[in-house]
Amino acid sequence: MENFTVFVKKNKLFIFLCILAVILISISLSANYIAPHDPLKTNMTNALQGRSSKFPLGTDNLGRCLLSRLLYGASTSLKMTFCLVIIIFIVGTALGTIAAYFGGIVDTIIMRFSDIFLAFPGIIFAIAIAGVLGPSSMNVVIALAVVNWVKYARVSRSLVMSVRKKEYIKGAKMGGAKEYQIILKYILPNIIPSLIVIATMDIGTMMLEISSLSFLGLGAQPPTPEWGYMLNEGRNYMQTSPGLMIYPGAAIFITVMIFNLLGDSIRDILDPNQ
User: Fold this and answer.
1) 0.90 exceeded by the pTM?
2) Which of 87, 238, 258, 260 has an alpha carbon 20 to 30 Å from 77's alpha carbon atom?
3) Lowest mean pLDDT across 69-73, 77-81, 83-87, 183-187
């Protein structure tokens, strides 16, 4: 109990950010229960209305409730972001671990393959891939996954190379442990914490990249509510109804800030030098 109290006192920011992240995720998952209106229902008689008791944040150019679209947009944006982070985390970690553990020609092929992706500007390459695949939420996730797995591969490779020479790895080999058992039981548990920190901090970055591609029309397609595309929809009404851009922009800003600060807090907690 005393240790828990000390932990709470030392990590108030971390706990506060975890609560905010949980609330944000809960809102996105329960959007269909708490949204006051159907986010897809149009009514031109209500177009571009200001804040009111019926529409707390007003309406867009098609008369749709802006608050409802923001809530549903949170679900769309966060699902796409978490899906992307999970994909690049698994793929990058698996390839980096295999490259470092087996070395030789396997390491050379995987690392030279990653060099090819590093030779292109990331966001430009993602735009090109998304443009070829066609505009959709899934294609944006695929395009960004193709570009962003490299970082996890290189970080995991460097971590595995430092771990594989440890005495307990040699002992496991002498004890007859198979290759996959050594990787799963002895190597991955030692490198996962560092990669989790990177993944947590990547949530904000990936959300920004998804929103950027959606703003360009390559992501979620109408009438699906998504924060990046909502910015695109509102840009023609910036002078008359600035809320159409301010509210989704603020939602992106707050969400990215929360997860970036959460990543910093997790890094401080897991840092062995702290």
Assistant:
1) no
2) 238
3) 183-187
